[in-house]
């Protein structure tokens, strides 16, 4: 194996270099390899639905020696490792002749370590395929752990064999193992980004010209509100890497398609005139106006996420982070309180909208909102937004018609929708998500990025461009660009040249 040019050493293990492989793709590649080995050796197996997204292959305990021999032979020059789940011990190199340091193990994670040497991105046992040894007799089947369908002991006559198509192959399995479950999320989920190419000279000139006649709130005239350094490219990469279940991505923008983005059906650029209910109010430089019209985007799924281009998926998450199986939206509250006082011309558009939202909801439901939302992708439903527009028609229309943020604007996506849905029984608070907000213009923000990269333990993070910087623009641009390239080094399939 040491002679293979495509195998490297990383943290004491052999590994494959990462070029374009996502965590999910790595898992599927290893799964199909294991299947081919079993087919070639004539070893019977079942594909099993485990308790998470990881594929599970079940093999009869009586065939454990044949299984080990087949895998050891097939992995002679391949960097496969095996780590036991139900017994302690380090991962072992399969080509060394075993799958475990103990003979008692019945659950293994088989994986090829992968690493992107330039960035340090690496995959290990977390992307492994699970192999389980089942004791199968004429009367019963004894499993080492429960799965999504069965208990640990199953009567053999009840485990009726069937087939299922997964990962481009037809697999032997147990009947109903992969049937739709009541707890599954089977509806489509789309994602909408709002984005402005603030580096465009034409955009800057038009914005400055129109702003001459407006007085905006604190920070709303800052260049940080529209400055961009290709964050959208990396936000899209984060979707490709960590949320491959997203059906379709829309980019709500009036800017031109960036040079790095190819024409791809999975990513649709959506100009304002194509989804504003009243195009006569355009053009707009107000993100709150754009957000009030998202439910009019043609072809948008009923269930969708909304995000800004400075918000990223930090690790693999599923749709259950955002929706219940019944379609209830699950939003992430921040610890930051909205505070006291009413909306006024001195506050930022963000703070004003929270107060306008609060007043509307208190008038409607008699309940007070106290917190902002976290800076992360947030779930919405078209039908609820349509209902809200009928409930608050004047506020929706006035916000959509505000060229710049006004003190009377609502913020539908932060957080009028979420608390309206909560108070009407169609949303709950998501408390399990791990989110990090980073002000990249502060010295502490640079340290936060180092920690994010080293740990990769956040579900979501936001790299905000603050309006009161401690560090200069050139250093901030360099540090953020380096961080994003290291965190998301895998190009998405919709990038040019891929």
Topology record:
Blueprint: E1 8-10, E2 13-17, H1 23-41, E3 46-49, E4 55-60, H2 64-74, E5 81-84, E6 92-93, E7 107-111, E8 114-115, E9 122-123, E10 129-136, E11 140-142, E12 153-155, E13 161-166, E14 169-174, E15 189-194, H3 201-211, H4 231-242, E16 249-252, E17 267-270, H5 287-291, E18 303-308, E19 311-313, E20 329-331, E21 333-337, H6 349-365, E22 371-373, E23 378-381, H7 382-391, H8 393-400, H9 412-423, E24 427-429, E25 435-439, H10 443-455, E26 460-464, H11 473-487
Parallel strand pairs: 2-8, 4-10, 15-16, 15-18, 16-17, 20-24, 25-26
Antiparallel strand pairs: 1-2, 3-4, 5-6, 5-7, 7-10, 8-9, 10-11, 11-12, 13-14, 18-23, 19-26, 21-22
Helix pairs in contact: 1-2, 6-9, 7-8, 10-11
Beta-strand segment tally:
26
Count helical runs. 11
> What is the H level of CATH, i.e. the homologous superfamily of the largest domain?
Spore Coat Polysaccharide Biosynthesis Protein SpsA, Chain A
Structural class: alpha/beta
CATH class of the largest domain: Alpha Beta
**CATH-scheme architecture of the largest domain:** Alpha-Beta Complex
Average residue pLDDT: 94
Evaluate the radius of gyration: 26 Å
Keywords: Exopolysaccharide synthesis, Transferase
Domain Stealth protein CR3 conserved region: 375-421
Domain Stealth protein CR4 conserved region: 450-495
Family: Belongs to the stealth family.
């Amino acid at each position: 194996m040491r002679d293979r040019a495509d195998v490297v050493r990383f943290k004491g293990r052999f590994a494959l270099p990462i070029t374009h492989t996502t965590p999910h793709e790595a898992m599927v590649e290893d799964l199909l390899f294991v299947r081919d080995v079993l087919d070639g050796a004539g070893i019977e197996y079942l594909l099993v639905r485990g308790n998470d997204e990881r594929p599970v292959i079940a093999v009869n305990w009586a065939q454990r020696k044949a299984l080990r021999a087949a895998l050891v032979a097939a992995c002679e020059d391949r960097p496969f490792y095996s780590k036991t789940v139900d017994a302690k011990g380090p991962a072992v190199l399969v080509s060394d002749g075993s799958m475990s340091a103990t003979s008692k193990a019945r659950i293994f994670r088989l994986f090829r370590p992968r690493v992107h040497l330039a960035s340090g991105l690496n995959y290990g046992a977390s992307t492994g395929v699970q192999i389980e040894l089942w004791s199968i007799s004429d009367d019963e089947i004894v499993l080492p752990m429960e799965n999504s369908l069965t208990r640990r002991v199953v009567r053999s006559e009840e485990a009726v064999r069937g087939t299922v198509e997964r990962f481009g192959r037809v697999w032997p399995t147990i009947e109903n193992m992969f049937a739709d479950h009541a707890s599954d999320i089977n509806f489509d989920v789309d994602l909408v980004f709002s984005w402005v190419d603030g580096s465009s000279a034409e955009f800057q000139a038009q914005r400055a010209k129109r702003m001459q006649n407006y007085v905006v709130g604190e920070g709303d005239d800052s260049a940080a509100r529209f400055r961009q350094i290709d964050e959208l490219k990396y936000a899209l990469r984060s979707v490709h890497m960590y949320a491959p279940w997203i059906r379709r991505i829309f980019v709500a923008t009036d800017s031109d398609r960036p040079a790095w983005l190819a024409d791809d059906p999975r990513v649709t650029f959506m100009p304002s005139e194509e989804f504003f209910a009243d195009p006569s109010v355009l053009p707009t430089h107000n993100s709150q106006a754009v957000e009030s019209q998202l439910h009019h985007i043609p072809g948008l799924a009923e269930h969708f996420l909304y995000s800004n281009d400075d918000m990223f998926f930090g690790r693999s998450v599923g749709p259950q982070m955002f929706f219940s199986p019944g379609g209830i939206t699950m939003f992430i509250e921040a610890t930051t309180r909205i505070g006291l006082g009413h909306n006024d011309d001195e506050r930022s558009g963000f703070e004003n909208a929270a107060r306008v939202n609060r007043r509307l909801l208190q008038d409607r439901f008699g309940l007070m909102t106290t917190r902002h939302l976290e800076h992360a992708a947030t779930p919405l439903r078209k039908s609820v937004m349509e209902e809200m527009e009928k409930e608050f028609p004047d506020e929706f229309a006035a916000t959509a018609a505000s060229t710049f943020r006004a003190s009377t604007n609502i913020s539908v996506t932060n957080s009028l929708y979420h608390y309206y849905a909560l108070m009407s029984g169609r949303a709950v608070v998501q408390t399990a998500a791990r989110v990090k907000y980073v002000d990249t213009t502060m010295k502490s923000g640079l340290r936060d990025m180092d920690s994010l990269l080293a740990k990769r333990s956040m579900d979501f993070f936001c790299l905000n461009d603050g309006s009161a910087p401690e560090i200069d623009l050139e250093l901030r641009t360099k540090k953020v660009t380096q961080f994003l390239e290291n965190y998301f080094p895998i190009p998405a399939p919709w990038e040019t040249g891929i």
